[in-house]
Design brief:
Blueprint: H1 8-16, H2 21-29, H3 32-47, H4 64-86, H5 115-128, H6 131-142, E1 150-151, E2 167-171, E3 176-180, E4 188-189, E5 200-209, E6 212-222, E7 235-239, E8 252-256, E9 259-262, E10 272-273, E11 279-280, H7 290-320, H8 339-374, H9 381-409, H10 421-433, H11 438-456, H12 468-474, H13 484-511, H14 516-522, H15 524-551, H16 556-576, H17 578-584, H18 589-606, H19 610-617, H20 621-624, H21 635-643, H22 655-669
Helix pairs in contact: 2-3, 2-19, 5-6, 5-7, 7-8, 7-9, 7-10, 7-19, 8-9, 8-15, 8-16, 8-18, 9-10, 9-11, 9-15, 11-13, 11-15, 13-14, 13-15, 13-16, 13-17, 15-16, 16-18
The protein binds ligand LKMIAJQL and flavin-adenine dinucleotide.
Ligand LKMIAJQL binds next to helix 5, helix 7, helix 9 and helix 11.
Length: 670
């Protein structure tokens, strides 16, 4: 088939670009070799038989059941393709931030029913089992003999893990655990793939041995027969029903009726139960929460990727769309030329870069801490937990706001399913809740910050990410200059100031006679604000420093663009938080006006590179799945082509006319 022509607007835009798009793509991927590898994987998947979505009825027209079956068909075929690839390639990078495997969005548009298998089930087996268990289970999980999920949340409790009700009671006479769901609220509820996909799961349950409860522990549990896939006796399993998004994730419920599993089904890397029922405690009981920390860390780079998809759609569409006529007798401008549109779009693109570099930094910190933990050194665990919590929480909330802004920037067409913005929206919004709900995680970081504040009052802090607190004691009002380093210091002063205020409020409540817990609750709005401010201090400092560092490794033309994006991100947030800066620095109205002017200058400087910047994300059309965002910009043709796929358009008159409309019309005549 002849290549379809690229829309003239995009041809012109691509000529304007001042930097080498391929150079930026390689930087985003982490090097030329990584870009080549990713493209190789994408080619392999896109060209594999049985996976193309091109000529299919769009899945939004399928029934709930058909949609699931279609997702399973594709996810299985995709797995076969990856299995073949793994025979000749190292695929251990699947458990680290990489865009290499995101081609799966080109196969299963929404969340795959296997997502929890690779995302949480396999990592939990790898990291929480003892070496014998790893040797026995991991090959089966990696080969999909065991298809698994992570079953922790219950109908009654998701946040409060110590409140989970599922019990695993050790019976030394048979050397088994008896799993039981004593109440309706103890039913597992939410795990992805649990409903009809998984035959195994990691179940988090309260461990009882010798009549003593030792708290929540993970167990590997078979729930379905490996031949027939029938639920095993004592297991009640099913699907929880339609949701805002995640339509193909196959989220399920699960109950146990005195269901027996062997003693060695408990994941025993950290804590153990011996044959006689003796309990051996973990070095740190929070190690059981390790998979959640791992996923929270990965979510930050995941969000950067989702922003790159949504940004590609909205920016390309904005270059193709013309609307209004500000100057009489002149053509309608591209909507991308409206400065308000640039304001909506460019911060989203800059945020994708900020999250990617911060997410990579967080991943490196995580890897280092986990290495230390494996040697028995837990010192950095609280700081890592505090960082992972606030970054996951704030980045997910920001990303959801940015994706919504991208959708709004596409006007009415952004509301179309075929734009793919609604599905991306559903994926990103869910991130605010799963893997630890926003407020709950912010309050976890606040616990750490309150301790850090107490430490800082003695003039020293042990952890580097809060060292700015000590500086605040020397000078609690930053002397303002409109420079990046002052802006970063400004965010640190705001964080320190808000931590101090929240801390003082907490103390005041305690001194007034309140229990610490009640005092905490009373101060919690301020504590969440303090966590957010701390997170902004981290995000602004790390993203700026990382982007500056990267700019020294590339050509001058690309370095200039990276610095513009990094500065835009800093100024955007300085302006957003101008009220806070006024409280904690000497910033003046004049400084703020100058920053506003600089912000607008940056929008103008970025404008010629808008298309180059999103082209550099290098999200293939097959992965973008969007009528509005394709590389060729044939927006209107695609919208019409997709509309014509509606089953309602298969006949000129729908039967409902004869059944309902005609009688209604006839009655009107009487
Ligand atoms: C192929 C790879 C792809 C990778 C991408 C994968 C993406 C997959 C995404 C798929 C989509 C959806 C999947 C969704 C899955 C889920 O949602 S699984 C369920 C997740 N659930 C949660 O996150 C529950 C949140 N709740 C908690 O974490 C805890 O209950 C909470 C921390 C809120 C409280 O725990 P408690 O035991 O009650 O602790 P507490 O008393 O408050 O604190 C005691 C102490 O411990 C510290 N602490 C808590 N957690 C940790 C931790 N993880 N690490 C270190 N320390 C921790 C806490 O700060 C306290 O310290 P302090 O010194 O006493 O203050
Ligand atoms: C799309 C999706 C996929 C999921 N996948 C899985 C999965 O695969 N496996 C799994 O086990 N789970 C999964 N979950 C469950 C998820 O982890 C929980 O929903 C999440 O941790 C929030 O817990 P919750 O639902 O109990 O919310 P709740 O804790 O009931 O939250 C409700 C409200 O109460 C507030 N609140 C609760 N506690 C406090 C507190 N201490 N202080 C202040 N405010 C508080 C919250 O801020 C929130 O506003 C999934 C959820 C979603 C949405």
């Amino acid at each position: 088939m002849a290549e379809k022509k690229v829309c003239e607007d995009l041809v012109k835009e691509r000529k304007k670009c001042t930097f080498n798009v391929e150079e930026l793509t390689r930087l985003i991927d982490g090097g030329e070799d990584k870009t080549m590898e990713r493209r190789e994987v994408e080619d392999m998947v896109i060209n594999a038989g049985g996976l193309s979505t091109k000529d299919e009825v769009p899945e939004e027209y399928l029934s709930h059941k058909e949609r699931y079956e279609n997702a399973i068909r594709k996810a299985s075929r995709l797995f076969e393709v990856f299995r073949e690839y793994a025979k000749t390639h190292d695929t251990t990078d699947a458990f680290s931030p990489t865009n290499k495997y995101r081609v799966s969005f080109g196969v299963v548009k929404d969340i795959s029913p296997f997502m929890l298998h690779m995302g949480m089930f396999v990592p939990t087996l790898m990291n929480q089992s003892d070496p014998d268990q790893v040797a026995e289970w991991l090959p089966k999980a990696l080969s999909m003999q065991y298809i698994g999920t992570y079953a922790q949340t219950e109908l009654g409790h998701g946040t409060f893990l110590r409140g989970l009700e599922t019990t695993a009671t050790y019976d030394p006479s048979t050397e088994e655990f008896v799993l039981n769901s004593p109440t309706l609220t103890s039913y597992k509820w939410w795990p992805g793939g649990l409903a009809h996909t998984a035959n195994h799961c990691v179940v988090v349950a309260q461990l009882y041995t010798k009549g003593v409860c030792h708290g929540v522990h993970p167990f590997l549990v078979q729930i379905r027969d490996l031949e027939t896939h029938m639920p095993l006796e004592g297991i009640k399993v099913g699907e929880i029903g339609p949701k805002l998004g995640f339509q193909t994730a196959n989220n399920g419920f699960l109950g146990f009726n005195h269901y027996r599993i062997p003693r060695r089904s408990m994941l025993m890397k950290n804590a153990q139960v011996l044959k006689d029922g003796t309990y051996i405690k973990s070095k740190n009981d929070k190690l059981t929460y390790g998979t959640m920390v791992f996923v929270r860390v990965l979510i930050v780079t995941d969000l950067a990727y989702e922003l790159s998809r949504a940004g590609t759609i909205a920016v390309r569409y904005s270059a193709v769309r013309h609307q209004s006529q500000p100057k009489p007798n002149e053509p309608e401008p591209q909507i991308l030329d409206y400065v308000t549109q640039q304001h909506k779009l460019f911060i989203g693109v800059a945020t994708s870069h900020a999250f990617r570099v911060t997410g990579n930094w967080l991943w490196n910190s995580y890897s280092k801490v986990i290495k230390d933990v494996s040697k028995g050194n837990m010192d950095q665990l609280p700081e890592l937990h505090a960082l992972a919590c606030c970054l996951k929480a704030v980045c997910s909330r920001d990303a959801a706001a940015r994706v919504e802004e991208f959708r709004l920037a596409c006007g009415g067409h952004g509301y179309m399913a075929s734009s793919n913005l609604p599905i991306i929206n559903g994926i990103v919004t869910a991130t605010i809740t799963y893997e630890g709900e926003f407020t709950v995680l912010m309050l976890q970081t606040a616990r750490f910050l309150v301790k850090a504040w107490k430490e800082a009052t003695t003039g020293k802090v042990k952890t580097p990410t809060v060292s700015y607190l000590v500086e605040f004691f020397k000078n609690d009002r930053v002397i303002w200059e409109n420079t990046p380093s002052t802006m970063i210091k400004g965010f640190q002063a705001i964080a320190a100031g808000k931590i101090r205020t929240a801390y003082e409020t907490l103390e005041k409540h305690v001194k007034s006679g309140m229990d610490y817990e009640d005092a905490w609750n009373s101060a919690s709005v301020q504590l969440v604000n303090a966590s957010e401010a701390h997170c902004r201090a981290i995000l602004t400092e790390i993203s700026w420093k990382e982007m500056v560092r990267l700019s020294t490794t590339v050509s001058p033309s690309l370095a200039q663009v990276l610095l513009q994006l990094a500065e835009l991100y800093l100024i955007y947030w300085t302006l957003e938080k101008r009220g806070d800066h006024l409280m904690y620095s000497t910033i003046t109205r004049d400084d703020i006006q100058k920053l506003q002017t600089r912000y607008e200058e940056l929008l103008a400087l970025i404008r010629p590179n808008a298309i180059g910047l999103v082209d550099a994300f290098d999200v293939r059309d097959e992965i973008l799945n969007s009528t509005l965002g394709a590389y060729d910009g044939r927006v209107y043709e695609r919208l019409m082509e997709e509309a014509l796929k509606s089953p309602l358009n298969a006949e000129p008159v729908n039967q409902s006319f004869h059944k309902y409309l005609k009688p209604l019309m006839l009655k009107a005549k009487l």
